[in-house]
Automatic annotation (TrEMBL):
It holds the Pfam family DUF1697. This is DUF1697 domain-containing protein. InterPro entries: DUF1697. It comes from the Bacteria. It comes from Novosphingobium aerophilum.
């Protein structure tokens, strides 16, 4: 049975507190198997019959709203998609704690991406590049020092997203690999 990872945005930040045990319970109630969490920030590994990840994203967003009254963007990727995401990272030479992939609700429009880069050019040193339903960001001086926020990105791209640093994505991928061996 295929393995997936669901990456939730807005979990355990801004008052949206949710235990990982409650999140696992919700997945199991929906009929998913092999459910486990990685890091307490809304990363859920699970097994399910092969189906388009976009449909799963809608299901999980609805589940969060109905069961926990939390509005959350959810990015679902298969293990193969996560491998491809990391392999395509143009900033792999950067600090793995500062290089992030923002998993998006759709493919960034090239004109919107160009506007995002232009609008941000004078705001900070971050490097930005588009990927497959993703945005790669090298925060260079650290996320805490950056003026490049999710809200800034989402407004310019017209897409929702949730970001993870390279270290976290590698950890998630390792857990996915463990579960399939």
């Amino acid at each position: 049975m295929p393995r997936y990872v669901a990456l939730f945005g807005s979990i355990n930040v801004g008052g949206n507190r949710l235990t990982m045990a409650d999140l696992r319970w919700a997945f199991e109630r929906e009929g998913f198997t092999g459910v486990e969490t990685v890091v307490a920030s809304g990363n859920v590994l699970f097994s399910f019959d092969d189906r388009p990840t976009e449909g799963l994203e809608e299901l999980f967003a609805h589940m969060m709203a109905e069961r926990f009254d939390i509005a959350s963007h959810v990015a679902v990727r298969s293990g193969a998609e996560l491998v491809a995401l990391l392999a395509a990272d143009p900033f792999a030479d950067g600090d793995e704690a500062q290089v992030h992939a923002m998993l998006l609700s759709g493919q960034p429009d090239p004109a919107a991406l160009a506007k995002l880069v232009a609008d941000h050019a004078a705001r900070g040193p971050e490097r930005i590049a588009a990927g497959d339903r993703a945005l790669y960001i090298d925060f260079v001086d650290g996320v805490g020092q950056s003026r490049l926020s999710n809200a800034f990105i989402e407004r310019r791209l017209g897409l929702h997203g949730t970001a993870r640093n390279r270290r976290s994505l590698q950890r998630i991928l390792a857990k996915l690999a463990e579960a399939t061996t």
